[in-house]
């Protein structure tokens, strides 16, 4: 599951990494890029809970094989994309297929690990996403230099194919094959469902903001080339990767959900200061820290949900979280792209920093406060 989430983020971050080059070659604006991101995000939003229900019913072995096959084909389809419609279509299919990533991860965790190990298990499985964001610049940049941005999308298709071959062998394990649905699924009338959604979607929004906009911001603010950016763009998501393991350990070891969410909210605020920083290295460090904090929101929100709802519906729970996050991305990113076109980076970063505050406040109001 860590490997498949790694591949999913390599697939989605290849476009973000190569955005300056692709937008120039395809004659697309930052606002149009925002709509392309929205196409992915809307499909990803719809795919997450749907794949969650499918995986809960047919199991991760068959379900993940179908999902990864679909998104691998979609990733390769970027090679043949031209203009806004072509990229938006390829991204939408990719997003729908990748909606199975975290439902499959959480479903596997609850089937194979004891309750006291699950937050760390979630950290391992989910951390593939941040690992993929870390290694994408290191892997994709040299491929794009040698064979162009289309060659990079051929490579992502090869990665997905390799995982499918490995999964065909590994998924023969009895605990992976097991399918059992008992109890009622979480209901939207339950305020704890909305507390989980708020903490996950709004608390983790800065991760999507940094992932999608970092390359464009660094190019505009510091006049860096595509190659120069490719050498350092692994740094911000490394904070995400480290954060998963740190917050997974903290969540398994210590109680105190409210104190933890309040701390995370306060530590999200420095993101708003990035446009006022004129140091390239310090900007990268602040992006690193912002993504370190977002992983705490994700781990905390999922741990909260799995504590309050039946683990038999783990796929659906994970789908609600990742899907709601994607909805926020879809709604906000076109506006962010417009602000970037206007060079109003100060407003864009300030908005991104406000989302964790709103998410934490909503969680406080709607959660039952169980420590």
Poorly predicted spans = none
Helix content: over 70%
Assign the CATH class: Mainly Alpha
Assigned CATH superfamily: MFS general substrate transporter like domains
Largest sheet: none
Coarse morphology: globular
Q: What would the average pLDDT be, to the nearest integer? A: 88
For this structure, the CATH topology is: Growth Hormone, Chain: A
- Counting copies of identical and different chains, the oligomeric state is single chain
Rg (CA only) = 19 Å
What proportion strand? under 5%
What's the SSE pattern? HHHHHHHHHHHHHHHH
- The end-to-end span amounts to 29 Å
CATH architecture: Up-down Bundle
Per DSSP E runs of 2 or more residues, the count of β-strands stands at 0
What features would you describe in this structure?
- By secondary structure, this protein is mainly alpha-helical.
- The protein has helices at residues 2-17, 19-26, 30-58, 60-77, 83-98, 101-112, 118-170, 174-177, 191-203, 205-222, 226-232, 235-253, 257-267, 280-308, 314-341, 345-366.
- The mean pLDDT is 88.
- The longest helix has 53 residues, at 118-170.
- The chain contains 16 helices and no strands.
- Helix 10 packs antiparallel against helix 16 (345-366).
- It has a single domain, classed as Up-down Bundle (Growth Hormone, Chain: A).
């Amino acid at each position: 599951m860590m490997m498949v989430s790694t591949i999913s983020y390599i697939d989605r971050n290849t476009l973000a990494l190569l955005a300056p080059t692709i937008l120039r070659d395809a004659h697309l604006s930052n606002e149009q890029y925002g709509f392309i991101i929205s196409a992915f995000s809307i499909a990803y939003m719809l795919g997450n809970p749907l794949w969650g229900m499918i995986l809960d019913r047919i199991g991760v072995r068959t379900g993940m094989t179908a999902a990864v096959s679909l998104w691998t084909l979609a990733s390769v389809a970027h090679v043949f994309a031209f203009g806004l419609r072509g990229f938006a279509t390829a991204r939408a299919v990719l997003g729908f297929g990748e909606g199975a990533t975290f439902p499959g991860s959480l479903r596997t965790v609850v089937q194979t690990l004891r309750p006291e190990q699950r937050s760390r298990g979630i950290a391992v499985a989910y951390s593939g996403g941040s690992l993929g964001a870390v290694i994408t610049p290191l892997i994709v940049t040299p491929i794009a230099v040698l064979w162009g941005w289309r060659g990079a999308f051929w490579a992502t298709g090869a990665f997905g194919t390799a995982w499918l071959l490995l999964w065909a062998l590994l998924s023969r394990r009895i605990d992976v094959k097991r399918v059992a649905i008992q109890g009622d699924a979480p209901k939207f009338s339950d305020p704890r469902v909305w507390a989980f959604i708020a903490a996950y979607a709004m608390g983790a929004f800065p991760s999507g903001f940094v992932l999608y906009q970092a390359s464009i911001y660094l190019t505009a603010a510091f006049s860096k080339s595509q190659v120069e950016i490719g050498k350092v763009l692994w740094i911000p998501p490394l904070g995400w990767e480290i954060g998963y393991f740190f917050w997974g350990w903290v969540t398994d070891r210590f109680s105190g959900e409210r104190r933890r969410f309040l701390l995370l909210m306060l530590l999200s605020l420095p993101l708003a200061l990035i446009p006022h920083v004129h140091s390239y290295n310090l900007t990268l460090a602040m992006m690193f820290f912002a993504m370190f904090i977002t992983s705490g929101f994700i781990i905390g929100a999922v741990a909260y949900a799995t504590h309050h709802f039946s683990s038999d519906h783990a796929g659906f729970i994970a789908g609600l979280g990742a899907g709601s996050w994607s909805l926020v991305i879809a709604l906000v990113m076109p506006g962010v792209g417009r602000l970037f076109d206007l060079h109003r980076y100060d407003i864009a970063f300030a908005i991104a920093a406000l989302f964790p505050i709103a998410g934490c406040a909503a969680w406080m109001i709607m959660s039952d406060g169980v420590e």
